[in-house]
Amino acid sequence: MEAEQEVKNWFKAAKVEDFPKNGGACIKYKDKQIAVFNFTRRNEWFACQNMCPHKKEMALARGMIGESQGEPKVACPFHKKAFSLQTGENIDGEDYEVVTYPVKIEGGYVYVGLS
Amino acid sequence: MNSRKQTHIVVVGNGMVGYKFCEKLIDKEETQNFKVTVFGEEPRPAYDRVQLSSYFADADEKDLQLAPPEWYAEQGIELFTGELIVDLDRENKTITSQKGRTVSYDKLVLATGSSAFVPPIDGVEKDGVFVYRTIEDLEAITSYASGARKAAVIGGGLLGLEAAKSAMDLGLETSVIEFATRLMPKQLDDIGAQALKAALEELDLEILLNKNTTQIGGNSVPEYLNFADGDRLDADMVIVSAGIRPRDELAKKTDLGVGERGGIIVNDRMETNDPDIYAIGESALHKGMIYGLVAPGYEMADVLVENLTGGDAAFTEFDMSTKLKLVGVDVASFGDAFGETEENSKKVIIDNKAKGVYKRINVSEDGDRLLGGMLVGDADDYNMLLQIAQNGFSLPPDPVDLIIGDRDEESGAGQKVYDFPDDSIICSCESVTKGDICLVIEDEGKEDIDSIKKCTKAGTGCSGCVPMLDDLLTQSMEARGKEVRKVICEHFDYTRQELFDIIKVRELHTFDELLDEVGKGHGCEKCKPAVASLLASAFNEHVLEDRDTIQDTNDRFLANIQRGGTYSVIPRVPGGEITPDKLITIGEVAKKYGLYTKVTGGQRINMMGARVDQLPDIWEELIEAGFESGHAYGKALRTVKSCVGSVWCRYGLHESVSFAIEIEERYRGLRAPHKLKGGVSGCVRECAEAQAKDFGIIATEEGWNLYVCGNGGTNPQHAKLLATDLDEKTLVKYLDRFLMFYIKTAEHLNRTSTWLNKMEGGLDYLKKVVVEDSLGIGEELEQEMQQLINVYACEWKEVVNNPELRKRFQHFVNSEDVDPSVKFKDYRKQSVPAAQGWKDEG
Ligand code: SRM
Ligand SMILES: Cc1cc2nc3c(=O)[nH]c(=O)nc-3n(C[C@H](O)[C@H](O)[C@H](O)COP(=O)(O)OP(=O)(O)OC[C@H]3O[C@@H](n4cnc5c(N)ncnc54)[C@H](O)[C@@H]3O)c2cc1C
Ligand code: SF4
Ligand code: FES
């Protein structure tokens, strides 16, 4: 994952408890929609663009998270295209990709690294 | 470049066959011996033209791509797209593109395909007249169709019918115009074509035969067609699909041999009369024949690669078997469809007009070999018959057994794929044999379809052989004494039924508990909803308490997600009976929130286009008026349809509405492996279509007949009679048992029909369990059902009254703003999603 020190702009998104356990929610940053996932079982947080590259639906935050051979992923609720939450690549090797963002937790708040 | 010079192969045409040539060459040869340059006229790299029509339906452009642009670069292939080759200089061995680029070659491969043939009809040049060959053609058709009402397709062949279906799917009234006296004249005989015509007319496609179009009339755009016989047809869009013409322009310019009616002449080695120039695919004329199908083109690519890499291969005549895709009527023809290749061959025919099925096979004079045939209305046996014909298998004593097609018996023609010889071709698009596939399954241990596809490429073309792959996998595992365990996914080594028992016996109420006790890893989108459904069936607790994130989005938000990310709202209307006041409420709510309303196929009303944040408010108002969740989003009981029954109907024997309401209220909210639907009809006229339901109840003089395991949907199946002349109490008892038995033993996402089809002992066994209680579990099943019924509560009511749950229906967690990407447009006085994604880019 991205080295934390490279991130200059940490956006304070919301409180930890605003996010469902083992699931995602969408945050708004200026005009951007970003899906943030609280992968409680792995004790990890992830974030990626909310728009699914398949049919351009604003939906990934409502997708289901899980693992494929140990790789954390989110599956789009529309047609179940799944993306690695680490690399953003399509899990089945298809030609779709999403942008991922680093996440950190501090003082009960979720921060998303935007640059 | 240097002394060990590479051979420079230039390929003109980056279509299906041109691409396949590159792929096979790369697979074959150390790439350093060759330098490959490809020119394609189309703006994008090669895509799957065969699946073009699915572009309308679901696939997007990328799904059609045969390989992404990077692939060519990675293989060291230089690819120029959007560049038409306009000149060939055989003397100096160069070609020149429209952009003025000149490239020299050592070997030139012409894979220029064909173009749609457009007859010189008066008016064909009008805007609004299209051909059907490329993605651009389809995009143009789609955008023009939005302003059109009625389409005419000129040409009733394979492609014309596919185009007609697409026009219908675009919402146009559609007519097919065929010059000949029957549809698909190359594949079907008169009776077969008639059966096809009847079936297509059922689908509301108009078919006009014997029609010679003389003019496409109208002011600048089409308005009508005139025919030679004086008839006239209104149409504001025209698709011409009157055959193909090989693209032999370059050959003609330079005196390469071309056929009288076009096509670049090649020999068995794919050589033209210039030793350094080859032609493959639809532009090649082999022994007087243009092959308008992809499989022979791939074979040509294979032969040429062999020959260019030092081998010696020959293209011989190729099978022209085809199956019509997507049209809604099964049609296939295979091998020698007309029985013309052997003298005294015999035809065997089944012509079932009532069912709209026509099957014809041609067998050799001695009755030993299958030569070919055609299937209309039911092509389930196509793969099997094709295999038998191609591999020369011996036939049953009475060949008619091959086509009787008793679906309940062993698959198709009674042959097991696993018993085929190793060299029989299973996937004809990619020429993959049974042996190749078994190798991957048995030696490499690949035991799922996806891996088999990846390793062998089988099933990646027209995908027609996938059911056979599935059978082969199962049969191979069985043959080796391996249990074919339908485990859910990599996280649980258990079947659905096993998990259900574990959950109940150990009283595990959450996904995490189950995963920790018997699973591994952290779950995925396959096991989570499956377990959610099991938990719901086991305990019927609220689906959102502690388990919202393991639900599919529809269950998580208690509504169906739709294009553009909005949701639909369908309140329960038991038995389809609704008071005027409730109708008014629906009208008022829909108006207030700007929702689109439509009467559903399930006798209730759908309000569509609600944003996620509006759902709780909408439901609050509906619940206030006495509505409750209709579970249209869940794998749960949907509707129990009813006819009007004896209160009103002069034929009605009993009160079907009351009974339907009772049943629907009894099982409302019941979660199951798949959705459940029921129906109650007041007499045999069956206006509630109860025999098309998972359970159907039909009044008799004496009581009620109970039918089970029917459905409409993808593979319609009629329900089967389970018990007759029951009183209401007994009927409910049987239903309890039946439903609970299904819930406990079916695999995830199997409807009751699929469950029954797989059940050993079939209907007889089910009768024994439910009616005779042969397993002695009847009472237990009834009690389990009663527990589920006792704890039923409307999910939406709980959400509406629970501020914590309500909070989850916000689009953003850090802002009250609503989703700004949701956009609507007006449509017949209501609002519908404004197209998003690729659709509105054009
Ligand atoms: C709304 C409705 C169409 C309509 O406007 O009439 C509809 C709409 C959908 N149907 Fe249906 N079906 C509707 C009646 C039917 C019927 C007719 C009936 O129930 O009598 C059938 C065939 C009968 C049957 O199921 O046996 C039907 C067979 C399907 C199938 C195929 C099921 C199968 O076993 O093959 C699916 C796909 C699935 O469930 O996996 C499906 C799936 C869908 C989905 C959920 C697709 C999706 O995931 O978006 C659609 C959701 C729309 C929405 O947002 O609400 N729908 N669907 C109908 C709602 C009925 C209701 O009041 O609840
Ligand atoms: C809607 C549709 C459905 C079909 N369904 C089936 C089916 O179910 N089963 C089946 O077997 N077949 C089907 N076919 C036929 C199948 O698509 C063709 O047989 C196959 O595409 C032929 O491949 P090809 O490479 O020879 O030609 P193409 O795929 O047409 O490729 C030729 C390419 O060369 C390009 N080209 C031509 N001239 C030049 C030039 N001078 N310079 C540069 N580029 C040039 C063209 O633009 C084109 O991209 C269908 C076809 C269509 C249109
Ligand atoms: S409503 Fe049903 S039939 Fe219609 S498009 Fe959706 S799933 Fe298909
Ligand atoms: S829109 Fe996401 S998978 Fe199709």
Automatic annotation (TrEMBL), chain A:
It comes from the Bacteria. Residues 11-112 form the Rieske domain. The keyword Oxidoreductase applies. The keyword Nucleus does not apply. Gene3D superfamilies: Rieske [2Fe-2S] iron-sulphur domain (2.102.10.10). Keywords: 2Fe-2S, Heme, Iron, Iron-sulfur, Metal-binding, Nitrate assimilation, Oxidoreductase. This is Nitrite reductase small subunit NirD.
From TrEMBL, chain B:
Its cofactor is FAD; [2Fe-2S] cluster; [4Fe-4S] cluster; siroheme. Keywords: 2Fe-2S, 4Fe-4S, FAD, Flavoprotein, Heme, Iron, Iron-sulfur, Metal-binding, Nitrate assimilation, Oxidoreductase. Residues 8-284 form the FAD/NAD(P)-binding domain. It is an enzyme of class 1 (oxidoreductase). The keyword 4Fe-4S applies. Residues 321-387 form the NADH-rubredoxin oxidoreductase C-terminal domain. This is Nitrite reductase large subunit. Residues 562-624 form the Nitrite/Sulfite reductase ferredoxin-like domain. Its EC number is 1.7.1.15. One of its GO terms (molecular function) is nitrite reductase (NADH) activity. It comes from Fodinibius salsisoli. CDD domains: NirB_Fer2_BFD-like_2. Residues 634-772 form the Nitrite/sulphite reductase 4Fe-4S domain. Pathway: Nitrogen metabolism; nitrate reduction (assimilation). Residues 425-474, 487-536 form the BFD-like [2Fe-2S]-binding domain. It comes from the Bacteria. Belongs to the nitrite and sulfite reductase 4Fe-4S domain family.
